[in-house]
Amino acid sequence: MKILIWVVVLLTASGCSVKPAAPVTTTAELSEFPLHVYTQQLADSLFAQLPNAGSVMQPAAQIAVASFVPVNSLSLSAVDEAEKQLANQLSESMLTHARQHGFTVFDYRLRQQLLLLDDHAQALSRQLEDISAASDADTLLAGTYTPMEDGYMLNARLISVANQRVLAAASGYIPANVLWGQRQVVQQGDMLYRRSMSGETK
Description:
- It is a single chain.
- Helices cover about 25% and strands about 30% of the residues.
- The chain has three helices and ten strands; from the N terminus they run ααββαββββββββ.
- Helix 2 packs across helix 3.
- It is globular, with a radius of gyration of 27 Å.
- The relative contact order is 0.16.
């Protein structure tokens, strides 16, 4: 009987000392690469679909680049400044990649006259009255993006201006932390937290 009591006591004591295993938590892996690396991958995939060009029979595409827009609304009018900055930076990066791939690229924001101000000279504008409507571009590089939990899904396409035919299309992904700015980091007490795209603090 004494032996049985000791066994019960030992089992009870050992049961009290066992701690449940800590739940396994996973967090999105932080990217060590800048935005340029991800847009380079997108550009490589996009431009690789164009046929070899440069001859009289098959002239090379002459490209103009538009700002990326959210896939559902196709408009930047209702998004915040951070999202507008993302959209415009994506187009700037793709313009750079297009030229580095050897294509003729047109920037339709060029002012008809250089604007000289007290502290700087301005060559680009978004005001229609300041820019020329004429353009020799025959291909438009346009893109959309979709916010995801930890990043953005990108879709880019090259469209013929003459007949709206899609000449090439490619998709890519950008981790959200590539675009983290000061506005997305908040301090609570002595700790720093990241604010998700939904506004939730993590």
